[in-house]
């Protein structure tokens, strides 16, 4: 779907989710405006980085104008589960964040990850923009952090994920392998 542009302005809801077993999960960002449901596949790191960026952005926004950032209440957080059908429009490669001060909307900008060689051929990635209120973004941020944290537990010594069959910790024997 290269070279297309889609704006959901404003969204009725925005969420993140993961499908699959910890260690093999696929991550998604999803938004709805009316009957239009847009799902994008993304990396776990994208979901976490976006959640942290939104959190920092909302904190800085609240310093300048505390009334703009309302706490995400139960009505906004509500059911944050992914909706079906889960048919991703594309796999997100680059994720950005912006703000429309006049409309008081945070915008999440997701660019399609191109296949190897497509950029050299002049193919432009598709882009999707989700426009949401600061309160919707706060709810997204909190939920996305929960989704990411719901994976495999981390080793307290080395920080690596612990697999269901166990974990060899490189810090226990003083030897650490570097990639």
Q: What does the model show?
A:
There is one protein chain. The relative contact order is 0.22. With 179 residues, the chain is α+β, with helices and mostly antiparallel strands. It is globular. Helix 1 (44-64) packs antiparallel against helix 3 (134-149). Mean pLDDT is 85; it is low at 71-75. The protein has a single domain (5-149), classed as Secreted effector protein pipB2 fold, CATH 3.30.2450. Strands 1-7-6-5 form a four-stranded mixed β-sheet. The protein has helices at 44-64, 74-77, 134-149; strands at residues 5-8, 13-19, 26-33, 36-42, 92-100, 105-112, 127-132. It is built from three helices and seven strands; from the N terminus they run ββββααβββα.
Give a brief outline of the structure.
By secondary structure, this protein is α+β, with helices and mostly antiparallel strands.
The overall number of domains is: 1
CATH level 3 topology: Secreted effector protein pipB2 fold
Regions with pLDDT < 50 over 5+ consecutive residues? 71-75
Q: Quickly name the level 1 CATH class.
A: Alpha Beta
Global Rg = 18 Å
Apparent shape: globular
Quaternary state, please?
Answer: single chain
How many strand segments?
A: 7
Class from helix and strand fractions: alpha+beta
Elements, N to C (H/E): EEEEHHEEEH
Please report which band the strand proportion falls in: under 5%, 5-15%, 15-25%, 25-35%, 35-45% or over 45%: 25-35%
| End-to-end distance | 34 Å
């Amino acid at each position: 779907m290269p070279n297309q542009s889609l704006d959901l302005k404003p969204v009725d809801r925005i969420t993140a989710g993961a499908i699959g077993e910890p260690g093999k999960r696929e991550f998604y960002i999803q938004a709805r405006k009316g009957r239009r449901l847009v799902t994008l596949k993304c990396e776990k790191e994208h979901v976490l980085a976006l959640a942290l960026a939104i959190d920092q952005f909302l904190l800085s926004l609240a310093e300048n104008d505390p009334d703009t950032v309302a706490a995400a209440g139960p009505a906004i957080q509500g059911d944050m589960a992914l909706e079906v059908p889960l048919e991703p429009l594309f796999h997100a490669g680059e994720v950005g964040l912006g703000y429309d001060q006049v409309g008081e909307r945070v915008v999440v900008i997701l660019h399609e990850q191109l296949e190897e060689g497509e950029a050299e051929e002049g193919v432009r990635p598709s882009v999707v923009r989700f426009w949401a209120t600061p309160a919707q973004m706060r709810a997204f941020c909190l939920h996305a952090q929960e989704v990411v944290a719901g994976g495999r537990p981390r080793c307290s010594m080395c920080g690596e994920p612990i697999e269901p069959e166990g974990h060899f910790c490189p810090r226990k024997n003083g030897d650490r392998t570097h990639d």
